[in-house]
Description:
The protein is α+β, with helices and mostly antiparallel strands.
Amino acid sequence: MAASVEKSALYVPTLEELCEVLQDGLKKNFAEAQVSVVDCPDLTQEPFNFAAAGLCGKPRIADVGGVPYLLPLPQTDKIYNLSTVAEQVELPGAFILGAAATSFKAVGVNAELMPNVFTKGNGKPDINHSYSAKIDPATGGFILEKYGEKCKTCDFALLANLYISEGNPGKVVEVRSCRRTGQSNFVSCMREALAKHFGDKPVAMGGAFLIQKGKAKIHVMPDFSPCPLNSDEEVNKWLKFFDMSAPLICQSVFVSHDLGFDLRVEHTHCFSHHGEGGHYHYDTTPDSVKYLGYFLPADILYRIDRPKKT
């Protein structure tokens, strides 16, 4: 049966207004913050090494599946495909990045996914620069792998929060901040600033950022729990938490507020070129942390296969 697709227009402020709003919010949470409109750097180059050069061209976000398909017990029939998502959001041949769960059928276990794919469309092969992070059952440590190269699939499972565009160069919002003084993490701070300023107008953004200095609290999901996970406490005992070191390359989607679609309002996964990655929570070195990010507001929100139970 085809997955349900719901669609809603988003409010799209000017990039200049977004700069003011984000800078005001970040300055309440960081010792230094500077937000400006710039030309997007070529994201296919170091350190990002993404599948497409930019974030521009018909930007949209998709919230696929959800945590209710993972907890209290996983619904293992929930397998999706990024190329199919591109068609569902009416942008075949799209560049997709964000945060998701791997296809456990491809990896062999449940794991974190950092999707980064140019779904070429028209029968052309995908450019798949996705990463995955899984727990090594033998050691309890984590393993970061090039999912696209190793598994050669655009499949994912259970849930995803995705930023989708044509992958073109163009103007983006550049965000620089360092030395966190407040309680909110980098992404939450921006999302809360949007929510406060725009009120009931839904604003959603996606993109990528670097943790250039410092360390961050990151979790990696282990394989599925044989026992139902019915509370936050049980989930936190099941998850594996680590302190990971910069530089970390993060892929993020955030929405100012839920539009009544049971949205995950922020979700960020990261990878690195030194073997670390997973689900970003917050930096653990506030006095030394340094962030650099590139983001764009999305025009449309797509809610794909929304769970019946929240």
